[in-house]
Structure formats: C-alpha cells, structure tokens
Amino acid sequence: MKILKKNNYWVLLLMFCISFQVVYSQVKTSKSRQIVSLNKNWKFHLGSANNPSKDFDYSIVRNFTIAGGGGGCIVPEFKDDDWRTVNIPHDWAVELPFEYHKHFDVQSHGYRPVGGFYPDNSIGWYRKHFTVDNTKEGQRFIIRFEGVYRDFKIWVNNNYIGSTFSGYSESSFDITDFIEFSKDNVIVVRVDATQYEGWFYEGAGIYRNVSLEVLSPVHIPEYGVYVSAKVEKAKGVVQAQTSVKNQEGKTTDCSVVSYLINAKGVKVTKSLTEKLTVKNNESAVTIQNFTINKPELWDLESPNLYRLVSLVKKNGITTDSTQTEFGIRTFDYDAEKGFSLNGKSMKVKGMCVHQDHAGVGTAVPDALVYYRIKLLKEMGVNAYRCSHNPPSKSVLEACDKLGMMVLDEIRVIGTGKEYLEQFEKLILRDRNHASIMLWSLGNEETGVQNTDLGRRMAHTLVQRQKELDPSRLSTYGGNNGIKYLGINQEMDVRGFNYHIKELDDYHKEHPKQPIIFSEVSSMVSSRGMYVKDSIKGYLPDYDLNKPRWGQTAEEWWKFTVDRPWLMGGFVWTGFDYRGEPTPFTWPNVNSHFGIMDVCGFPKNTYYYYQSWWTDKDVIKIYPHWNGYKTGEKVNVWCNSNADEVELLLNGKSLGKKAMPRNGHLEWEVVYERGKLEAVGLKNGKTIRTFVETTDKAYQIVLTPDRKIINADGNDVSVINVTVLDNKGREVTNAMNLIQFNLNGDARILGVGNGDPSSHEADKCLDGNWKRSLFNGKCQIILESSEKEGEFVLKASSEGLKNATVTIIQKRDKI
Ligand code: GAL
Questions:
Q1: What is the pLDDT of residue 259?
Q2: Which of 341, 556, 709, 768 sees the fewest Cβ atoms within 10 Å?
Q3: Are residues 128 and 98 in the same domain?
Q4: Ligand 1: residue whose CA is nearest its atom 10
Q5: Bridge-based pairing state of the strands 235-246 and 218-219
Q6: Is residue 429 part of a domain?
Q7: 420 and 314, same structural domain?
Q8: With the CA atoms of 535, 540, 545 and 551 taken in that order, what torsion angle do they form, in degrees rounded to the nearest 10?
Q9: What range defines the domain where residue 603 resides?
Q10: Is the pLDDT score of 5 beyond 80?
Q11: CATH code at 550?
C-alpha cells in the first residue's frame, strides 16, 4: 500500500481541487441541472429582538396574514442601499467586540454580546437580489442553506417560504412558484440568534454556503441517491438506490442509467437502463447492483473514491444527472479485538473538533476547512468527531478525500418531530460519505442518559438509523461511566466520555459491547506559554494540566494502547475554540483544550501525538531559550519517537536517555544563554532539533499555505506570520503588533493569533487590519476574488523590516 508522504497532501489537495472542479463544471454545464452559488453580495443589517422600530417593524406589521403581505424590509421594494454588503459564509457574532456580562456562565460562549441580554445584537436580516432569465421557465428552483445560526425564516418576493430551527441542519426550500422571470427577485432572511444550542461559541448568521439548484421537472430529488458498498469475497458489492421525482403535471415514463467511475476517472461498469413510470408529484425508486472485481479500497493512506454518475432520461434526453462519491471499505468493531479498517487492526486516533477558526468565527470557507483537516492529518490523527453537531458538507468532503474517519454527531438527542427530523436529515445527507465510521446520537445528555426515557429515545433513533443506513452502527458520548441502563444499553458501541477509572469494570460487566473513548483528555495548555497566569488566563504549554474529569495525553494514550479491546478515542480537542476558557473565566475568552490553537499553530503536545501516531521522524524540545536568568533551573521536555535522546547545552552533553514508548523525556537544565540541542537516534539514524537564545525581532516573514489559488471568489490563502532576529532565527516569544495592507482584487477575511485571552478584533471592519503576534505568530486569512491576476499582501510593524507576499489567482487552473 502506498504510504502518503508529507508532500503528497499537496498532490491530494490538487487532485481534490481538480476533481471538484470537474464534477462541479459537469453538473453546472449539464442541460438538466444547474447549481449556482448564492454566496456573494447579500445585504445585511442587524435588527432587534425587543425594539420593533430597530427590527424593521417585524413584530408590529402583519407579516403572515395574507399571501404576499409582508411588511418592513420583507417588502421587495424596501431600500437596502445603506445595508452592509456581505458575502456568505458570514458570522456577525465574530464582528462584535468582547464583552463581560455576569449572565455568562463559565462556558461563556466566547463572551461575544449575543443572546437574551443583547437584543440589538441578536437578530440579523439578510436580503439578496437575483434574476432568473425566462429561458428557465418550467424548471424547478430549490434554494439550499447549508447552515444558518439559527432559527431563520425566509421570504421570496414577499411570500413566506418557511423556517429552520436548528443552527446546524441543512435546509432547502422549493421556491419555483415565487420566481419572477427576467425581473428582480428578492430573498429576505431573518435570523434569530438569541437562543443557544450548545455551551460553546456558535456564531450568528448565514455561516455556511447558500446555493440555488435549477432542476428539470423530472429529476433526482434531494438525497435521492443512496449508495451502499461492501466487500464480499474480495469483490466490491455496490448497491445504488436512485429516486426520480416527477413534477411535470402528468404521469411520465423515464429511465435511470448509472455509471461507476474509479478514482482515476475511468469507467468501471455501467448499469442496465431501468425503466420507471412515475405519477405526477410522486417519486419512484430504482435499485441497481454492481460488482467490482479487485476494488480499490478507501483507507487512510489511499482514500480511493468511486463516483456513481446517475442519469435520468426521458425520450432519450437526459433530464437530470448527479454524481455521488463513495468508498468501498470495511469497518469492524470487536468487543475483544477493538477496531479495524479493511481487516487491519488499528486504534482510533481521534480528535473532537468545534467548527470555528481564527479570524472567521464559524463562517469557515471550504478551503479553510480543508486546511484544518490537513493539519490534523499531519499530526497523525485518523478520525474526526464532529462535536457536538452536524458538520458542514465540506468537512465530510475533505475527510473523504484526505483519508480521515468521521464520527458524525447530532446536536441534541430527541424523538419529537424536530429532533427526529434533524437526525434523519443528517443520515440522509451524509450516508454516502466514505469517511463516516459511526453515527453519534448525542453527547452528555445528563437529563436523560440514565433514564428509561433516554433508553426509549435511543431505541427509536437506533432503529431509524438502521432503516436509513443499515451499513453502520451508532454510539453516544456518555459521561456516566459504569452506568449501563438508559441510553448506553441501546448502543452498538459504548462511547465513554472520560471516567477512565470505570472503564475496565464496565468492560468486564459488558464484555460483548465494543468500547471507544468518545471523548477523552481535556488537557489544557496555552501555546508557547511556560508559566501559569491565572489573571490573564494562561497555562504552561506542557502535557500537565487537566480538569478534574480529564487525563493528560500520556495518561489516556498509554491506558489505551495497553488494552487491545479498547477501540481508541477522540481527544478533546484538535483545535482551541471560542468559549469554555476552563479553568479560567473573563478576561480569558477561548478554550485551552486544543492540541493546536485556534489558528492551527501546534502546541507542544502536538509533537507527543505526532511521535506516537505517525512513523515520521519527530523530535521537539521546549521551552524556548529566551528570557530566563543565568543559573535558573528550567524544566526541559522532549517529545520524540527516537530510541534515545541526548541533550546538549552549548555543545556540552547533559546526558543521554532512553525514550520510553508512548512517553516523553525531561531534564532539569541550569540556564545559560546559547543553544540547547537534542540529538536523537532512531533505528540507527540521527535526528536533531534545537532551541536558541535569540536577539529581538528584526524582520517579518509571511508564509502562505498556497501561493496560487482559484479565482472563484471562494478559495482561501492562509498566511502565517512569524518574525526572525537579525541572524535569521525565529523569535518564538515576540509579541509585536503587525499591520496588513492588501493590494489587489481579493478580500481579507480575518486575523488571529491563538492567544486565548486576546480581545483584539478578528475582523477589522474599518479596513485597518492589524494583529499582535502571540508568542511569535499570527495569521491572516485571504479570500480570492473572481478576477484572475495577482494580489500583494504587505505586513509591517514599527521597527521591523516589512514583508510582502504575492498570491496568484487563476481560474479553474488548479
Ligand atoms: C465535556 C463536553 C465537552 C467539553 C469538555 C471540556 O464534558 O462533552 O463539550 O465541555 O467536557 O472538558
């Protein structure tokens, strides 16, 4: 099997972009189906939850009395010229300043002033003008919102269309009857972010993509293709269920033919043409079976994806076509042997992830999602838990393409209409994804997890899951340790959140139930900090501090490798996120749980995991070598997968130590300025690293993740900022303020630095973009425009040598 080397991620990324482009352009140019992004040029204005005049009279005019009878800014002619123009994804909460309120509990939601005490910040209005030319008359028009936080209502041309309650569910609306052809059409959306759904930062607004789908009356409806694939006697056995919906006004005859395409784009096989008769306003389903000899399996190193191309034809003319990616692979959950993928036994080396990122809040563009998952992959992570809510589509696409398994989770357990529909929608939307290993029915439902109500709801959900997706199993993140009765008794796989001391006993009592740490560790650290500061809210960057319920990385991982039956686990968390500043509160605003900070800059424990979760050569020592007094004792840690490591201070050996497996090394070093070097021996090969006393910062360095990006108005370049001293050494404790100027046609989306207590702006809406370094690093995120060409980012700081970087935008070339 081909092992991916570091640089191969670039190749994968390129392949992803190419295949995405190809798929997208085919869908776009198909006569039958067009998907048009509606992300650009929305008008936005805050409303008010308690003042009608600030809320465009929403609560005092009749909006729902007669058809087409809305008032205020719902009326199409409403003048929105003075509203701000924004692009989707958009999160207005991240634009607000931080604010302390005694109402915020320790979890704080990131101390952004949204919620019941901030009525003037909690309602957002969006308006979007669009036109559809009259050649499209007779087609169906579906508007799709991939995620809006939260509780939104939509009108088209003053007609109320519908609403969506959850901030994490995708929703679509058929707006065919409301389109005025070759005229201005206006979509109005009112978003109410007053309530929370979680205890973490959740953002506010239309924070995931919006698109308009144009379909022929005879088409494949939403989630209308379901592909299941398994391996039987070394053959790939694939079943495609395809629905066809008829909205033509009369019964129609049509046919479905499907092709299987392999990862190289080569046609593998084709179905027979299945004839269907579909009554008006009904759907019919056809089932097609395929066998693939010697299937190329999806796995972590070679995430081979097949594509099912489905064509609906009527009188020989294609009326619709879709492309569905899927993978062929086998997940096994064994109560004695643990987890295996395609028969290969392995531990789940997972991370829980909340969706927000530096600079952008929850409005994370697809390319940035991809960047984050690539960072996890480089650390050796093989599984991603969507904690604690349905992910964006791009998370699943990136995990499929990069080879990262997924624990796909709903927000709240429930079997009332709303929550049951959220659950069904999650499965229907996501079940074709190769990466999804398990469904998660929720997290720490302390009100019901030990009750018979919890059991009944879990029973209903598991039954429904098996009907919609018999190929997978379910779990649940229970923080109730040894307890079995309630939700846990219905679970195929028992998910343990923490409670490490009860795990062995639980396993003894339930030897037939496979077990995974659905959540573990919660170790807390602040990147590049080496002393605890309870006032500002910083913790030393060692694998040391943990809350009462948590474990250090080393504790849980050693425990896990010692138990073959234990499937592995999901660390809380891959990245820092806004909110939950445990163990501190204000002025600390972000969490410390991340193995990387909110920008994706590694903290030191990243190298612990990388040492034991990859076969890369890893050697890392810390702290940095600045700012101590000569003679002071410094606790030096080394993370490495070398067999032994020697530490040298200014060339003098401080001793050689054998590296304990799944452990780390420590030395107490008497500080003197200079160079502290670690030299490791790994299978006879020398690997080395050092930290060095530096002078003060002298010059800025800009490092983009990609220098060529797509001129599609959605692509992103993540530019990391560091500083060097006059001898070219990185100054890892520098805190200089950096200013940014952008020259050219692109957009700055946000800035961040990973400081969990920073109150600097993520969004500098006055155009004066700046951010301080936090321990030598900050980040700026740029979004492409639709114009080909170059743009130049300049970074400057008083007393430092400037830096510039040129980014090239090319259309459909990458
Ligand atoms: C867990 C919870 C997470 C997070 C974490 C912090 O109990 O599931 O959402 O709050 O604790 O340690």
A1: 97
A2: 768
A3: yes
A4: 580
A5: antiparallel
A6: yes
A7: no
A8: 140
A9: 339-613
A10: no
A11: 3.20.20.80
Give the catalytic positions in this structure: 444, 519
User: Does position 15 have pLDDT exceeding 80, yes or no?
Assistant: no
Q: Is 547 in the pocket of ligand 1 (CB under 6 A)?
A: yes
670: CATH: 2.60.40.10
Span from the CA of 505 to the centroid of ligand 1 (angstroms): 23
pTM to 2 decimals?
Answer: 0.95
**By alpha-carbon position, which residue is closest to atom 4 of ligand 1?**
572
Residue owning the nearest CA to atom 3 of ligand 1 = 572
CA of 534 to the centre of ligand 1 (A): 21
580 lines ligand 1 (CB under 6 A): yes
| Nearest atom, ligand 1, residue 198 CA | 9
Residue 539 CA to ligand 1 centre (angstroms): 18
Q: Judge if the beta carbon of residue 197 lies within 6 A of ligand 1.
A: no
| Residue pLDDT, tens place only, 329-374 | 999 999 999 999 999 999 999 999 999 999 999 999 999 999 999 9
Judgement on whether residues 363 and 478 belong to the same structural domain of the protein: yes
Residues 391 and 497 occupy one common structural domain: yes
Query: What is the number of other CB atoms lying within 10 angstroms of the CB of residue 275?
Result: 11
Distance CA 733, CA 651 (A): 24
107 lines ligand 1 (CB under 6 A): no
DSSP of 412-471: S---SHHHHHHHHHHHHHHTT-TTEEEEEEEE--TTTTTSHHHHHHHHHHHHHHHHH-TT
Binning the chain into helix, strand and coil, the percentages to the nearest 5 are 15, 40, 45
Query: What CATH number is given to the structural domain containing 201?
Result: 2.60.120.260
Residues 124 and 149 grouped into a single domain: yes
Q: How many domains does the chain have?
A: 5
pLDDT digits (tens, 9 = 90+) for 755-775: 999 999 999 999 999 999 999
730 and 769 co-located in one domain: yes
Q: Say whether both 165 and 269 belong to one domain.
A: no
CA of 454 to the centre of ligand 1 (A): 20
572 lines ligand 1 (CB under 6 A): yes
pLDDT tier at 101, thresholds 50, 70, 90: confident
From the list 255, 241, 649, 290, the residue with the least C-alpha distance to 470 is 241
